[in-house]
Specification:
With 262 residues, the chain is an alpha+beta fold. Helix content is 19%, strand content 31%. It folds into 2 domains: 64 residues, no CATH class; 180 residues, Glucose Permease (Domain IIA) (Distorted Sandwich), CATH 2.70.70. The chain is globular, with a radius of gyration of 18 Å. Its EC number is 4.1.1.65.
Length: 262
């Protein structure tokens, strides 16, 4: 009964008008007074931020903050694939015939996640990571490899939570929420960076709308509040780093594995 009530509350709170309301407040000057409480509540390492916390004019501005130079080490090597975010790996593995298996007890079809894009053919036997960003984490998204933008796809959707409850008890959250997908072609294969919006967030933006190529670790996009990134690597090109597993905490720029053509 309690679980059903929570599910109902989640359904009701996932509407875009509520996300817009929360978004409007987080962009307001009043919200800046919550920044110190936000830092304390979520144990945010504010010293890593580009500016002192008192110089951010809104909560959203602080949440989407950049870091001081040198705060993250970027994986090196022509075939390196780096984590695009600070996050917890909540699922990872090979993609089987276009299906991402057992993400918090649910399977996901690539055709739904990628909104029936023709690009899905490149990933049907590829590799995936589901990377969850908590409120504590740094929320900018970086390029996982050096390459050029092949395509960008925005899918208007809902704003269900991507936390433990939402992922386990709401149906196909990753495929129903708002998504901004960037397809990047590197020297050794393609990658899809699927940025998934969340409850009271539902706002994903490119750092530079005009950019069409990136070096590994370059600033790509950011969330206005927390969410999840699904990283897809092209069929037969990716080898994960030994020892990497579900439940591992990774930092932006950390080596996830290597990519090479067969």
């Amino acid at each position: 009964m309690v679980k059903q009530l929570l599910r109902l509350m989640t359904e009701l709170s996932s509407h875009r008008w509520l996300s817009r309301l929360m978004g409007a407040f987080s962009h307001s000057r009043l919200s800046r007074f919550l920044i110190p409480t936000f830092i304390r509540t979520y144990h945010i390492p504010a010293a890593e931020a580009e500016k002192p916390s008192g110089e951010y004019h809104t909560l959203n501005e602080f949440f989407s903050r950049r870091l001081k130079p040198g705060m993250r080490q970027i994986a090196e090597g022509a075939n390196a694939v780096a984590s695009p975010v600070d996050a917890l790996i909540t699922a990872m593995g090979e993609i089987h015939s276009g299906t991402i298996m057992n993400v918090k007890g649910q399977d996901y079809l690539l055709e739904e996640l990628l909104n029936h894009s023709p690009h899905q053919e490149l990933y049907k036997k590829g590799f995936f990571f589901v990377l969850y960003l908590s409120p504590t984490d740094y929320h900018r998204i970086h390029s996982p490899l050096t390459g050029r933008r092949i395509e960008s796809d925005y899918i208007r959707g809902r704003a269900y939570p991507v936390n433990e409850f939402g992922m386990r008890h709401m149906k196909s959250v990753l495929s129903r929420n708002e998504r901004l997908i960037t397809y990047i072609a590197g020297a050794n294969g393609e990658a899809a960076v699927v940025k998934v919006g969340a409850m009271n967030v539902s706002s994903i933006r490119y750092s530079d709308e005009q950019a069409d190529q990136w070096l590994i670790g370059d600033d790509l996009a950011y969330f206005e509040f927390g969410s999840t990134v699904v990283l897809l690597l092209e069929n037969g090109t990716f080898t994960p780093r030994p020892g990497l597993a579900e439940g591992t905490k990774v930092r932006m720029g950390e080596l996830l594995g290597t990519q090479s053509r067969p």
